[in-house]
Amino acid sequence: MSEMSSQTKITVLIACVGVLILVLCIYFFTRLSIIKRILHLAASADCATQGDYSVDFTVASDDEIRSLGNSLGFMVSELKNKLGFAEGVLGGLPFPCGLIGPDFRMLWANKELCELLENRGRRRVSSV
Length: 128
Fold this sequence. Notes:
Blueprint: H1 2-49, H2 64-91, E1 98-100, E2 106-109, H3 111-127
Antiparallel strand pairs: 1-2
Helix pairs in contact: 1-2
């Protein structure tokens, strides 16, 4: 009986060590193959939200994460093109105009609006 008990303890110990090794292998595999690539995409997306549209979304794989990276890259390039077009149109307007955000802060002003505000400020200062 004592030998059977000893064998049972050894078997349980080997099984626990095997499960621990399996869990560690799965953790490192997912960390290297999945999480690292997702963190790269997240960091690139953060740079794009800060206004850096030249970030790289390419991921070295042949799975859905690569497809996600390609889609994000295409989306950012389309935003870049559309923002460039909008800035070109707004910059070409011959009258004072500006863009104000939802928090009532000036986001963009063309040259004519800047000149108008400068001249208006000078008139107030000179009349006082």
